[in-house]
Design brief:
With about 475 residues, this protein is α/β, with parallel strands linked by helices. The chain folds into three domains: about 1-150, Response regulator (Rossmann fold, 3-Layer(aba) Sandwich); about 170-270, Beta-Lactamase (2-Layer Sandwich), CATH 3.30.450.20; about 275-470, Hypothetical protein af1432. The chain is about 50% helix and about 15% strand. The chain has helices at about 10-20, 35-40, 60-70, 85-95, 110-120, 130-165, 185-190, 195-200, 215-225, 270-305, 310-325, 330-340, 350-355, 365-370, 370-380, 390-395, 415-430, 440-450, 460-470, and strands at about 1-5, 25-30, 45-50, 75-80, 100-105, 170-175, 180-185, 230-240, 245-255, 260-270. The chain has a five-stranded parallel sheet with strand order 2-1-3-4-5, with helices on both faces. Strands 7-6-10-9-8 form a five-stranded antiparallel sheet. β6 (about 170-175) and β7 form a beta hairpin. α15 (about 370-380) packs antiparallel against α16, α16 (about 390-395) packs across α17 and α17 (about 415-430) runs antiparallel to α18 (about 440-450). The longest helix is centred in the first third of the chain and has 38 residues, at about 130-165. The chain is elongated, with a radius of gyration of 41 Å.
Length: about 475
């Protein structure tokens, strides 16, 4: 069948259309009675399904006009409604020539059954006598007036409830139109210290810190124009005392006296921002303290082993460069830098004469040297770096194939940061002077890394190190 649905509620219209089309019907749409009559002038349909309450021409009047029409008078009509639900409403509909009166919500099964029923009805549709028509239209007018009065009463009641809710809200609420506060609730007045009369007689900009005027000018028009449905941002506003308040603004488009406006909700977050700033200050202070402690520990090692002065700093420098090239950032990168600066802290437990011995070490002496990662771990384990710095120090002499020390870890058991430290440590040591040998140079150091990449050293780390030196020209700072 060809069906015409008449409804100003687009959601209901689309849903009903989809259901009827799934039943195999061809469906046409109109948003009120005026549109429906215009469509019926050129489009043949088998039945009309119409809501009642619509702009310009409602369902009752649409039915009346169809029944008076010379060509359309016998067209089957179904009215469905969620507003006109009394027995008197149904009687009026039937008196005006409606074939079936249904109350929303209505199932598709009920509607399809009603369609088949009205299609098979006889539609002789004699024109109503003048007196009958007058009585029907009188009843229609009375019902329309009563319905409008009911809706107005409901609107007034709902507006009253809304105002009570807003007036009692613990959230500051305002309505802005043309850079003017046209409404501010008591909480808004309380937060800013101004009266409603003072706020509504001045521009919004008068209450905003000058440096934030541009921010407000950008967001308010954007919401009024519908550019964004809602927005959230932070603003500094002026209290009546002159104090600056930090506020969080949530704004959305609304209508006020028939014109676009913005309804805003404000939260005073001054105390929260002060607490956040204090936490940030303390965090920065803590970081400076950690930095100072790390540098102090690094100097302790240099004092104990003057022949390798700068070794830890240079290892940290290369390890950080390798890690950055591989995409490491943030706290993880900072932790690696700290670990590099103090990776040999455990050497404080090794006798100075062994550290500075010019000849080859004995087996016993080498065993003492091999304990420095574990000693370093013991020294650092009780310090909360916010990252496993102590573990990185412990593992910086471990090797991918398990040949390292002190634990003989292998593969994935080794931290990624420790794998980076291992390569940086070897490259710096081989390219620098030592008490027991002259510097071997950067070329020899890179050859070592290349030869054992994927065996002793992580292949990706080795590749990044070679790339940094040979392609990007990395050099240790003086």
């Amino acid at each position: 069948m060809n069906l015409l649905i008449v409804d100003d509620d687009l959601t209901s219209l689309k849903l009903l259309r989809a259901e009827l089309e799934s039943e195999g019907h061809a469906v046409f749409e109109a948003h009120d009675g005026v549109d429906a009559l215009a469509l019926l002038e050129h489009q043949r349909v088998d039945a009309v399904i119409s809501d009642i309450l619509m702009p310009r021409m409602d369902g009752y009047r649409l039915c009346h006009e169809i029944r008076k029409h010379a060509r359309l008078h016998d067209l089957p009509i179904i009215l469905y409604t969620s507003i006109y639900t009394s027995p008197g409403d149904e009687k009026l509909a039937l008196d005006m020539g409606v074939d079936k009166f249904l109350k929303k919500p209505v199932s598709i099964e009920t509607l399809v059954a009603a369609l088949h029923e009205v299609i098979t009805m006889p539609h002789a549709a004699p024109q109503p006598k003048s007196l009958q028509e007058v009585e029907v239209l009188k009843e229609y007018s009375e019902r329309l007036v009563n319905k409008l009065e009911e809706k107005n009463t409901e609107l007034v009641a709902s507006e009253g409830k809304f105002r009570a809710l807003v007036e009692q809200s613990i959230v500051a609420i305002c309505i802005v139109q043309d850079d003017q506060f046209v409404y501010v609730n008591p909480e808004m007045q309380k937060i800013l210290g101004w009266s409603e009369e003072e706020m509504t007689s001045r521009t919004v900009s008068d209450f905003i810190v000058p440096e934030d005027h541009a921010l407000a000018r950008e967001n308010i028009p954007k919401r009024i124009s519908g550019g964004v449905p809602s927005v959230r941002y932070y603003l500094r506003m002026l209290h009546q005392s002159g104090a600056v308040l930090q506020v969080e603004v949530h704004g959305s488009r609304t209508d006020y006296n028939g014109r676009p406006a913005v309804m805003g909700m404000l939260l005073d977050i001054t105390a929260r921002k002060q607490a956040e700033d204090e936490i940030l200050r303390q965090t920065q202070q803590l970081r400076r303290t950690v930095e100072g402690a790390v540098l102090a520990m690094s100097l302790v090692v240099e004092t104990r082993d003057p022949y390798t002065a700068g070794h830890e700093r240079r290892v940290s420098e290369l390890a950080t460069a390798i890690a950055t090239d591989m995409g490491m950032a943030g706290e993880q990168l900072a932790a690696l830098r700290h670990a590099g600066l103090i990776h040999d802290i455990g050497k404080v437990a090794v006798p100075a004469e062994i550290l500075s011995k010019p000849g080859r070490l004995s087996a016993v002496e080498f065993e003492l040297i091999k304990q420095h990662p574990a000693t370093g771990f013991d020294i650092l384990a009780s310090i909360d770096f916010g990252a496993p710095v102590a573990e990185m120090v412990l593992q910086h002499h471990e090797r991918l194939d398990g040949s390292g020390y002190p634990r003989g870890l292998a593969g994935e058991a080794i931290l990624p940061e420790a794998k980076i430290l291992a390569v940086a440590d070897v490259v710096e040591a081989m390219s620098s002077h030592r008490p027991y040998r002259a510097a071997l140079g950067m070329e020899a150091a890179l050859a070592e890394v290349r030869e054992h990449a994927g065996v002793k050293y992580d292949a990706a780390v080795a590749a990044a190190c070679v790339r940094l030196v040979e392609e990007q020209g990395f050099q240790f700072s003086a």
